Amino acid sequence: MSTYPFGARSPLRITFGFGLVVLVVFAIVPAVAVFLISFTDIRGLPGIPVNWVGLDNYERFFSAARIGYNVNALKNTLIYAVVSTVAINALGLAIAVLLNQKLRGKTFARAVVFLPTILGVTVIGLIWSLFFNPSAGPAATVWSWFGADSAFFGDPNLALGLVIFVQIWAGLGVAVVIYLAGLQAIPEELYEAADIDGASGGQRLRLVTVPLLAPSITANVLLAIVGSLQSYQLAYVLTGPNNPATQLLSLAIFSQAFGGSSTSGLGQSQGYAATISVIQFIIVSVASLLVLIYLRRREARL
Amino acid sequence: MTATTSTPRPAERDAPVAARTALDARRRRLIRPGRIVNYALVVIVVFCYLFPLLFLLNTALKSNADFFANPVGLVTSPQWANFGQAWVQGNFGAYILNSVLYTICAAGLGTAIAVLMGFPVSRGYLRWPRLWNALFVVMLFLPNALITQFQLLLRMGLYNTQLGYILIMAAGVGVGPLLIAGYVKSLPRELDEAAAVDGSGYWRYLITFVIPMAKPAIATVFILQAIGVWNDIILATILLPDPAKSPISLGLYAFQGTYTNDWGLLAAATMIVAAPLVAAYLFLQRYLVGGVVGSVKG
Q: Quick one: three-class SS letters along A113-132?
């Protein structure tokens, strides 16, 4: 603790305490309480007694009646996370390398790629619903050139892929900006030295760019994994909360807790939904820790 | 990594100017054949992002009959009335006011919290500095707490109130306190002492020195949180069932549910929501991009 020069400490304590109280009450307590209520039968309506039920909710998650639904949600979530993480990072790096060169209009291009981050899920959802609208839209027109038609977001085989596509489209901006910042920190001399040594374009990328970009890669991969394992707003806006083809774990939390597949007449079983939340949290933590350890090791080796 | 990427060899660093120019010329020549390809790639990327938006604008100016007759054709007789109709039928004025209220209050409160907590923690003016730093990091990795936030507001009597929603959104400070704490490190500590010697109290110092000096970081924190609040749809669905309190994101979503197949109107409504964001973005771009980068490095 360093010396506090301002005399009376009470102003410091009052304002710091105010911030702390808001964070603890409205963010930390709810986060911790998720674990607690996952062992109860709490419901969405007030005034109903709440009972401890031990591990019942967890048994229910793996019960024969539910396992199909849950495995489907889990499978969709993993596909969603893996595909969007890989694509966002590969394309993001490629676009960043492209925009890091001396080209006219690169600032404009960067701004355009970042734009979806600002527009938000509802607007993005509407833009792509319009684009992929089955009766008349650019995608339907392109399909018709090949004599095909499709229900797009209504087609169970295609819906998840399309939601992933939109997620990639929307998520690239942040990745590109982070990669660009990393690229700009690489000293130009290294490329000059590589040129003198006769390195080809591919070698420059592999031997100079990628190793020096390792911290940005770690940050981007982690952001994409954590974001995509927990994202559901796009699937919600594009295909609704109860579409089995795009059922994601976080969407299952929402529909179990607040609507859709009702389990009883007494309001939704939020204790069970909290259980899904806990399971999701465990998956997100384990996945990001493993990836973090792997990427840090690689960083150290390079 | 081999010698390829080490610092330039002395011979090269001391090379005469003529040799360096020759080197530059060689570099330029090496890049040139790729330039056309590069420009083509940039055009493709920009196209992928602008085309859906332009298609939206094109659709927004069509009547429904026009749209179904030829959905991808360019608009021939612009239906500006779509915008007025969407504005009135979607009640967007009221929703936008709600969103402005939520965004300013929640992001404002969240940013204030980030400053009030980030500054003293960064300076080490509090006991248990490591605990507070750990708290800031934990704020980034909280589990999905929709259910308990709902239950909390229900039990506090704040369910379906604007205040409750604002408090929940404000508490989602994310990277804010970390960013402020990081930025404060770059401000000279001597200034704190000098101001204190001159008789400034803690609060006056915060207002007259810290806030003006940390303006770039504060703006970034505010904008990052404001984007999150403005775009939220799930928490608003859960915590604000009264449609009169809906933010614009929810209003637009409901509008889509009502006018499912009236694409001209839907597109106009989407443009109404998107236009102010795009306009704000043009002004704030500098802070935004810097903020994303800062939040990762911080």
A: HHHHHHHHHHHHHHHHHHHC
d(CA A240, CA B256): 12
A68-301: which CATH topology? MetI-like fold (1.10.3720)
Handedness of CA B249, B252, B258, B264 (dihedral sign): negative
Which of B5, B72, B113 comes nearest A194 by C-beta? B5
Q: Is the dihedral of CA A265, A269, A270, A276 positive or negative?
A: negative
Distances (CA, A) of B112 to A19, A271, B109, B218, B223: 8, 34, 5, 9, 13
Per-residue pLDDT of chain B (298 residues; tens, 9 = 90+): 333 444 444 444 444 555 555 555 555 555 566 788 889 999 999 999 999 999 999 999 988 888 877 777 888 888 888 899 999 888 899 999 999 999 999 999 999 999 999 999 999 999 998 999 999 988 888 888 889 999 999 999 999 999 999 999 999 998 899 989 988 988 899 999 999 999 899 999 999 999 999 988 898 889 889 988 988 888 999 999 999 999 999 999 999 888 877 888 999 999 988 888 888 888 877 666 666 666 555 4
Bridge partner residues of A43 (DSSP): A269
Q: Could you tell me which of B230, B225, B232, B231 has the C-alpha nearest to residue B288? A: B225
B186 touching chain A per CB within 8 A: no
Domains of chain B: 91-258 (1.10.3720.10)
Question: Residue A215 in contact with residue A302, Cβ under 8 Å?
Answer: no
Any CB–CB contact under 8 A between A177 and chain B? yes
Q: Give the ipTM.
A: 0.85
Amino acid at A32: V
Q: Using the beta-carbon criterion (under 8 Å), do B146 and A11 form an inter-chain contact?
A: no
